[in-house]
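re: ur question from yesterday

yeah so i grabbed the chain u mentioned. its 215 aa long if i counted rite. heres the sequnce exactly as i have it in my notes:
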Amino acid sequence: MRLRHKPWAKDYMQAQEHVFISEPETLKGKWNEEFGNENPLYIEVGSGKGQFIFGMATQFPDVNFIAIELFESVAVSIVQKLVETPMPNVRVLTVDAKQLVDYFDAGEVDRIYLNFSDPWPKTRHAKRRLTYKTFLATYEAVLPRGGEIHFKTDNRGLFEYSLESMSQYGMYFTDISLDLHVNEPADNVRTEYEERFSAMGQPIYRMEAAFRSKI
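ran it thru and got these structure tokens back, copy pasting raw so excuse formatting
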């Protein structure tokens, strides 16, 4: 999908210091101070326009959420929603997932969500997939022992690849669904893409995977 450039997005977001964190590296190891509590910290990598993170933050007010979206022209939609409807347990970052260790301390993140990530279908682009082994190593570095990744996609190829990649990395699966909406959990929060693809009759694949505790 082609992104529409919004040259005003950066200045707008930087003016919303209560929502948008422009220098997240300064909060590494101190996110509990930013939120003012000791609640669990969940992050979503690739938040799009924020429907999922907004729904989750509403449903779970005792969890802190961070929306991570690389593109400012997309992330600004999340910030605008949070300005219109304040959510004290949400912050927004525009950073690259490759550098999560620059912004979060070891074990500081309690759960990571990957929703409808770019499948990068060409074999030569495998290293760009958010479930490639180098990304998994980055997630493991910021999660606690036994930390979880919750993953959803409409792309069967990416789903199968991710199952294999995580398994080879040594992770284990606590839940796998090949058609999430057949028996959709009451607490499932749908993303924008999820609603679109489901309406087209496309099955939604979902998994919960955990890192094995290190001895």
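noticed a couple things. DSSP finds seven helices and seven strands in the chain. also The CA atoms of residues 35 and 70 lie 22 Å apart.
anyway ttyl
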